[in-house]
Amino acid sequence: MSYISIIFLAGVLSISGCSSIKQLDIFTMEVERQPLDLEKPTIQQLEELKWLIITSENADEVFKKMKEKGIDPVVFGLSDNDFKLLAKNFAQIRAHMMKLNVMIDEYKDYYESDIINKDKQPEQDKK
Prior knowledge:
Blueprint: H1 2-19, H2 59-68, H3 80-111, H4 113-126
């Protein structure tokens, strides 16, 4: 008998619990977009390098001049093929920077289009 009363009580509570749910009022509030403050990536001022071209014919002369200037005659070198790869790497970096600049411009155009159009509307209305 007590099981029946427990089941009956649980059923009544579950049914009455559902009837007390209030309807939610959902509203939206428009928030004005703020202009994006994205800076375009810039290249910092790079240090100026002095390139020395050393061949088998001028190596002794170049090392002598370096010693006279007080420069330790240690040279890090690239072959002509490695120099081409270095130039290719810099070209890829430059292309990536240009791509980022275009992407930032597109984000600004998309995100700030409402703001820009609101600013232009009074000028169009005057005409």
